[in-house]
Amino acid sequence: MTNDMLMGLLPVVFMLHEFEEIVMLKPWLAKNGAALERRFPAVAARVLPLYGNLSTSAFTVAVLEEFLILTVLTYAAIAFGLHDLWAGLLVAFLFHLLVHVGQTILWRGYCPFIITSLLVLPYCLYALFALARSGAISPAPTAAWSVAATVLVYLNLWLALRLARRFEAWIGHDFAPRS
Q1: Which residue from 58, 100, 106, 138 lies 20 to 30 Å from 178 (Cα-Cα)?
Q2: In its keyword annotation, does this UniProt entry include Transmembrane (predicted)?
Q3: pLDDT of 73-88, one tens digit each?
Q4: Using CA atoms, how far apart are residues 57 and 63, in angstroms rounded to an integer?
Q5: What CA–CA distances, in Å, run from 119 to 20, 113, 122?
Q6: What is the C-alpha to C-alpha distance for residues 176 and 179, in angstroms, rounded to an integer?
Q7: What is the model's pLDDT at position 17?
Q8: Within the chain, what is the greatest distance between any pair of CA atoms?
Q9: What is the DSSP string of 110-177?
Q10: Which residues contact 35 (CB under 8 A, 6 or more apart)?
Q11: Which residues have a Cβ under 8 Å from the Cβ of 18 and sit 6 or more positions away?
């Protein structure tokens, strides 16, 4: 498999992971929200207002925004040979997956992101090592892009969730039953 083919798989792998979150987050929060508040009140105080009030449709809008940005950046990196930039995106995604692994360990049970986190971790590691082995990426630029991408991903999460809340308000207003 060429580096470009390996790189082009990232949006697919990202969506595989996100599908688990889209499908499972709302029912998981409904079942475990009270336990989350009891066991991790500080986390619950931050997470439940952000995600608990969003419909699955609105959460999907946030995921769509992230997917579009990742896809554009991935294919721009392929087209212009920006392998270190792409590796930085991959490392940010890898960090995201590792956070999910840590969350699941702390929770000591199923969390709505762990199955696909474990499934896609090998792809992330293989892609990173394959690009490094081929000489397409270098440690210093990849590290710099990794830090920048991780910061931008978490800043963008704020934007994506804001977009989701606006979508939620729009569907609540424009699609509410009329009497």
Answers
A1: 58
A2: yes
A3: 999 999 999 999 999 9
A4: 10
A5: 11, 10, 7
A6: 9
A7: 98
A8: 65
A9: --TTHHHHHHHHHHHHHHHHHHHHHTS--HHHHHHHHHHHHHHHHHHHHHHHHHHHHHHHHHHHHTSP
A10: none
A11: 63, 66, 67
Q: Do residues 149 and 88 touch, judged by C-beta distance below 8 A?
A: yes
Residue partners of 102: CB distance under 8 A and separation at least 6: none
> Domain residue spans in the chain?
3-173
Q: What one-letter code names the amino acid at 30?
A: A
Please give the single-letter amino acid code of residue 46: R
Position 66, amino acid: E
3-state class (DSSP) for residue 18: helix
Q: What is the mean pLDDT of the chain?
A: 95
Burial of 46 (0-12, 13-18, 19+ CB in 10 A): exposed
Structure tokens at 126: 């293989």
